[in-house]
Amino acid sequence: MLNKLFKLDENNTNVKTEVIAGLTTFMAMAYILAVNPNILSSTGMNRDAVLLATSIASFIGCMAMALLANYPFALAPGMGLNAYMAGTVCANMGYSWKVALLAVFVEGLVFIVLSLTNVREAIFNAIPSGLKKGVSAGIGLFIAFIGLQGAKIVVADSSTLLTYVRFTKDFHTVGIGALLALIGLFITVILYAKNVKGSILIGILSTWILGMLCQLVGIYVPNPDTGFYSLYPTFKMIDITAIGDTFGQCFKADFSKIKILDFIVVLFAFLFVDIFDTLGTLIGVSTKAGMLDENEKLPRIKPALLADAIATSVGAVLGTSTTTTYVESSAGVLAGGRTGLSAAVTGIMFLLAIIFAPIFTAIPSFATAPALIFVGFLMISSIISVDFTDLTESVPAYLALLAMPLMYSISEGIALGVISYVVINVFCGKAKKVKPLMYILAVLFVCKYIFL
User: Fold this and answer.
1) Cα separation of 40 and 80, whole Å?
2) Angle at 347 between CA 344 and CA 349, to 5 degrees
3) What DSSP state is assigned to residue 214?
């Protein structure tokens, strides 16, 4: 039944591989279960309600992707977008979280329209091959950077912005976490090199287990004040009824306090970031997985985009910020995931997380870091397919690659890549090869920097 539903044979995969891939993706993105409630609760939202909304929205998004598009792309409330909602919309602009959720809901409706009218698909297809490969490689660097930061291997520095961790300083928290992440990376690489099935997932679990052993013998010492919690899972049940505090609250926003122009700006900010984050993720992951056809197009992209749009509106109704396709899906894809069964497994795990949330939220960021760092290595190899003898193709790809980790944004990498592609080709006398939609995108990106 699963073989027929998800066309496993046609995609040269099997149930075991897809299940391992789905588990790998979930483990790589389970941190959202802890991070999203922490961020959104600062707006006054109930923490347990946000966790429930996060789990259910992720389940619905993953299942929509699995059943509508049959792709191994997982969805969850997006990082960055949740911070924008809490920090900018609610804290700086002074709107309530109900108004912010209303903007997310409307954004999802706009996305549904754009997906059904082929606008988002047309944008995906308009991006040239070289730039797509640059985006894929850029996402590799970006996801590796997220892993390095999560493990505290790369830390902030007042002089150079970034530097490496001082292992001996705060060794029992920061230092040992960074060291365990490196050990986990070596475990993952060695197992992958030996063609061990599930090597990325094994790397995550091995690092977590080593962490618990370190805590047992006193090498790792929890310090909640600095963000280092116990690595042992607990079994305290979450209050299921808490979802009532956020469910449907986006429709109860106080419209009398909404300034229409500000609301439109908020809506477009959500819309702009989400559309290009999603497209960037689809480009990057599908390029690396070899899912694009001979014309560099992604088959079934419309239902994939529709699943993303539906999940956004549903998530807003449940009580969470924009639900989007996760770049961590690449961990599952590179573990062998090729069909929607992988996404379905990830979704089911998010649903089970409602019951076992304390277990999954105990997974430390230094345990998932090896997977993200290694997946980044696998994805960056896409750049070797770019024709570096043609600067009109290679420089935009390079700039997109460079911008994503340094600007900490997939959408900004795409923006810089698109603008540079159009400008360089026009002034090099190759304007004819630039598709009309690329000109429109370039103008929109420039306007975005001016007005948003």
Assistant:
1) 12
2) 115
3) H
Q: Which helix (H) or strand (E) holds 315?
A: helix 301-318
Instruction: Provide the β-strand partners of residue 76.
Output: 324
User: What residues have CB less than 8 Å from 352, skipping those under 6 apart?
Assistant: none
Q: 10 Å Cβ neighbour count for 256?
A: 5
How many other CB atoms are found less than 10 A from the CB of residue 426? 15
CB atoms within 10 A of CB 356: 15
292: pLDDT strictly greater than 90:
no
Q: Which residues contact 54 (CB under 8 A, 6 or more apart)?
A: 32, 33, 36, 37, 76, 77, 320, 350
Residues 379, 140: contact at Cβ < 8 Å? yes
Q: Which pTM value belongs to this model?
A: 0.82
Determine the pLDDT at residue 121: 84
Q: Which two tokens stand for residue 105?
A: 């809901």
Most confident of 66-70, 224-228, 404-408: 66-70
H/E segment holding residue 59 = helix 47-64
Q: Are 437 and 128 in contact (CB under 8 A)?
A: no
- The CA-CA-CA angle for residues 37, 18, 120, to 5°, reads 65
